[in-house]
Design a protein that fits this description.
- The protein has 259 residues and is an alpha/beta fold.
- The protein has a single domain (2-248), classed as P-loop containing nucleotide triphosphate hydrolases (Rossmann fold).
- It is built from eight helices and ten strands.
- The protein is 36% helix and 24% strand.
- It binds adenosine-5'-diphosphate and magnesium ion.
Length: 259
């Protein structure tokens, strides 16, 4: 089943000033099936954030079609869209976006509380989710009492506690040191493999992308190429590097240290 289907998405900025038009997206087709873990990669300015914002319903495409869970989200009213996003999507951002005045458990409970859910069942679901992420001991801590890696894991718990159809992550490892990044990517891998979570992650880091099962490379607002994961992550990592080298018009002959 298709969780996300986008057809020929375009986004033009500054359309009213004909001399300053930017075609941020120039006809993107994208299909994400239930249970997939897909990365979107591309150089700075290639349209990644624009694409993710449109897929998330934060921004509207100039043209093209977009269905999430079979629903045409471009046609929804604001209130309908807000409810749809809350129920069906989970978001992970580069800078965690936790609420400072709430504990970890209270942050994670937010999507359920906003949906009118209360009580012991919520508390149990929150603790189960924190436990899955190895964060149960931090349930009553405030964001300032936790490391960046811990805060990001709480943010992931918040993104998945309501079992969304699709998790959208924008550079989720961008602010993390390499050990915390690896721990977070292993969590994404486990969510995908053990929970069947569908994940779409924007990243410019080939190491992060190597944890996904498919990479869509974009350049100048268009799909440049697509790559499916081979048998091992290490081989995938090398293939991603090679594709990036072609995409950026350079060759990298040196094997990178980090695998
Ligand atoms: N709000 C905006 N107004 C005008 N141009 C924009 C806006 N947002 C992005 N752009 C332009 O659209 C292109 C794609 O940007 P973006 O989606 O942020 O790329 P990426 O996330 O891959 O770096 C860039 O040329 C950028 O300058
Ligand atoms: Mg960006």
């Amino acid at each position: 089943m298709s969780v996300l289907k986008a057809k020929h998405l375009t986004k033009v900025y500054g359309a009213r000033h004909a001399n300053a038009v930017t075609k941020a997206l120039n006809g993107i087709d994208l299909d994400v099936e239930n249970g997939e873990f897909v990365s979107i990669m591309g150089p700075s300015g290639s349209g990644k954030t624009t694409l993710l914002n449109i897929l998330a319903g934060i921004d509207k495409p100039t043209s093209g079609e977009l269905w999430i869970q079979g629903q045409d989200i471009a046609k929804m009213k604001a209130s309908q869209l807000a409810l749809f996003r809350r129920r069906h999507l989970g978001f992970v951002f580069q800078d965690y976006n936790l609420l400072d005045s709430l504990t970890a458990a209270e942050n994670v409970a937010l999507p359920l509380a906003l949906d009118g859910k209360r009580g012991v069942a919520v508390r149990n679901k929150v603790l189960d989710t924190l436990k899955f992420l190895g964060m149960e001991a931090n349930a009553d801590k405030y964001p300032y009492e936790m490391s960046g890696g811990q805060q990001q894991r709480v943010a992931v718990a918040r993104a998945v506690v309501h079992n969304p159809a699709l998790i959208l992550a924008d550079e989720p490892t961008g602010n993390l040191d390499s050990a915390s990044a690896k721990a977070l990517l292993e969590i994404f891998q486990r969510l995908n493999q053990e929970h069947g979570s569908t994940i779409l992650m924007v990243t410019h880091d080939p190491f992060a992308a190597s944890y996904s099962r498919r990479v869509v490379f974009i350049k100048d607002g268009q799909v440049f190429s697509r790559l499916d994961a081979p048998r091992t992550r290490e081989v995938f990592f090398q293939e991603i590097l090679q594709t990036l080298a072609v995409l950026e018009g350079t060759r990298s002959d040196m094997a990178p240290a980090r695998m």
